[in-house]
Amino acid sequence: MGIFDFLKGNNKGKSERTEKPSPEQKLFSEKAMEILIPTFEQFGFHKHRIEIKKHSSTIIYRKDKQYLKISSNTHPRDYPNYYNIVLGEGDSEDFFEYDWNSIALWRLKKEINPELKVSEYEFPKDNGIELSLKNANFELLKYGLTFLNGELELFHKIRKEQNRDREPYKIHSPDNNGNYQTSFEPKSVVQKKKYS
Fold first, then answer.
1. Helix, strand, or coil here: 159?
2. 28 vs 36: CA distance, rounded Å
3. Which of 94, 127, 187, 194 is the most exposed place for a label (fewest CB within 10 A)?
């Protein structure tokens, strides 16, 4: 049974939100569920939320305070198209939380093997989806095994390094005289202190 067979009908759970997905997002999500989710479940992660849209997909599985997220983006303005495997701790729904409390799998890969050229995964074409996702699954097991097993020391180290050099978000808005001022967004200031 494919993911979209599961989502059909009026029995849609609160964790599944969809809009009419593009064919490439539909195929990508179905293959991701087929190839990566058995690994997530093998390590005790359970479905939290699935969201498939026209230009993006988000699949989140949680285990206690940890989460794994598969996110993809094929929006024409965000070229080149990509997907990521994200490892996080804490709230996977609040942007100001998850944006500071997670790392992409490629960051673990770079920490473990600094000579490798790393980045998010290129969003695969139709005939390359299965191979790309199998490679991502292999890399998750190779580089993310400590996280999967609940050992978070390396994850915390990388997250701290990632956030240390990062500025909080900025807000550019007019003051009472109509002059624009730039200030740091308060929630992201708190998150930077918390996760750096």
1. helix
2. 11
3. 127
